[in-house]
Amino acid sequence: MEWVKDKVIIELCPRIHEFNKLQSATGAVVCNIDKAEYLLDEIIGLADEILSALKQSDYALQLNTDLREWKRAGLNTVPCFKRSLDSYEPPVDGGKTFYLATIITPNSHKEKGYWLECFLAQRKQPDVLLPIMSDLPHPQNVSQTMHLIASSSGFSVGHCLVFFPENVKKK
Known about the structure:
single chain; globular
């Protein structure tokens, strides 16, 4: 699976970085729409490969739908990632996951706003948390500890330590 990490770092993140240069803080593309469409097509293809390798097929289908719908509506419109967010399943402990959306990355190096970002991570629940989770069960996965393997700059540069679903652009 090392190739997945390399694909995120070497191929996907540089394209996302270039795409970010064309966006405003709303997530909409504000210049060079043709270049943005070309980059988004490449991003979609790379994300499909990564998600296929990680067996996140339902999320991949919904993400592809969200991205293509944004492109159809015009990249100069505000994107909506509700379908893909709703279909996202957090990994089991030890499992790897990939996520892509326009999202606010708190404490990032970027201007606050919705920027196309991605991360590849592995869930790693520390043993010290297991008794606490057993004593204080919750019906949903409200908090998970992840090891960031690779990501776009909104997560990897600065002090963004969290991924909150409410920070995903859902219109």
